[in-house]
Amino acid sequence: MVHRSEGAAIAHHTVKQGYLNLVDRLNLFPQGAPPSDLLYRILKMLFSEREAQLVAQLPIRPFTAERAATTWKMPVALAKAALDELAGRAILVDIVNDDETTYTLPPPMAGFFEFSMMRVRGDLDQKVLAELFFEYLNVEEDFIKDLFTTGETQLGRTFVCEESLPPDPALDVLDYERATQVAETASHIGVDVPDGTKILLCEVDRDHPLLWTEQLMPVIPLVRVKDAQTAIRLGFDLEHGYRHTAMMHSRNIDNLSEMARLMNCSLFVKNGPSYAGLGKGGAGFTSFTIASPTGEGLTRARTFTRERRCTLVDRFRIV
User: Fold this and answer.
1) What pLDDT is recorded for position 133?
2) pLDDT for the residue 147
3) Which end of the chain is more exposed for a tag (fewer CB within 10 A), N or C?
4) What is the pLDDT of residues 99-119, one digit of tens each?
5) CB contact at 8 A, 273 and 305
6) Measured distance CA(141)–CA(36) in Å, rounded
């Protein structure tokens, strides 16, 4: 979590209060955004001052238009119009479930920073915005340092590859930095991790948070259901309507087709790992962004049209 320091506040005394409040709100996330002149320039391109002030008041957890209307002290219809406008520009993520729409403000990284570049837009100069992103993320370095090295919750962690260390000169590696030590001490939380383990599988019930929350960790939760149709429906619910990526292992063509149509994802991989949909062991090409929330799918420099691709691995392949 990043807090606006006294020095930063003095440096940005000319920034209007709405943007200052928005930065404080963004820094309630575990991965925030260190304040700087570049950050405020980025936010001014993405938010009007009024929008910045409104978004600064939004809760961290998903919320409804009614909740926002209460917070903003305005009619529900006006609040919903403002939320839909922000969601239309991918500042907010909106999810429709059983005719009820919930909204959430994503963090900057792997969030609205990325979403703002996922479609060609005429309301802002994306070339200028891209240059500001590059400066903020790669030149100033404070953002990346805070993202990966500081705070209680870090986006990633680096372990020492112990087998690659030379015997001479001798090097001391702390246990905290040893992946083997982390595996060996996992028994303290009731987990027995054999040597050479690369991924953990755990059986959970259908309400377990490991199922419903994106992990970005080598942990796969498994849940048992009575039949394929129940599994397909549960998989659809777990994907949250993001339309990003789905996989299914089955020998039943009808079940594979049913899930592919229901999920309607940019990538649907049959009988293979998810990366098979990006050209490794299957069709497609490597893409660093899948613009599912805004509809374009796999993005590349030459096109921003959405392409849907179903990849079948092993059986029924003729090539």
Assistant:
1) 87
2) 65
3) C
4) 889 999 988 877 888 888 877
5) no
6) 11
Alpha-carbon distance of 149 to 273, in angstroms, equals 30
Domain edge (last residue) among 126, 149, 172: 149
Evaluate whether residue 285 is within a structural domain: yes
Contact 290, 297 (CB under 8 A): yes
Give the per-residue pLDDT at 286.
66
Q: What are phi and psi of 279, to 5 degrees?
A: 95, -5
Rounded CA gap, 124 and 156, in Å?
A: 32
CB 251 within 8 A of CB 228: no
Q: Please list the ranges in the chain whose pLDDT falls under 70.
A: 1-15, 144, 146-180, 284-308, 315-319
Mean pLDDT of the chain: 79
Asked whether the beta carbons of 33 and 41 are under 8 A apart, the reply is no
Task: Please state whether beta strands 267-270 and 245-248 pair in parallel, antiparallel, or not at all (unpaired).
Answer: parallel
Examine the domain organization and report whether 266 and 137 are in the same domain: no
Residue for token pair 């777990």 = 238
| pLDDT for the residue 57 | 95
What amino acid occupies position 153?
T
According to DSSP, the residues that pair with 161 across neighbouring strands are: none
Query: Is the same domain home to 229 and 141?
Result: no
Give the pLDDT of residue 40: 93
Domain membership flag for residue 169: no
pLDDT of amino acid 178: 66
What pLDDT score does 70 carry? 95
Indicate the pTM of the whole model.
Answer: 0.51
Alpha-carbon Rg of the chain, whole angstroms?
A: 23
Instruction: Give yes or no: residues 132 and 29 share one domain.
Output: yes
Q: Pick the closest to residue 211 from 224, 226, 194 (CA basis).
A: 224
Residue 162 lies in a domain: no
Return the C-alpha torsion angle 33, 39, 44, 49, nearest 10: 50
Whether residue 304 contacts residue 119, with contact meaning beta carbons closer than 8 Å, is answered with yes
Q: In terms of residue numbers, what domain contains 38?
A: 6-58+105-149
Q: How many domains does the chain have?
A: 2
Peptide linkage before 35 cis (omega within 30 of 0): no
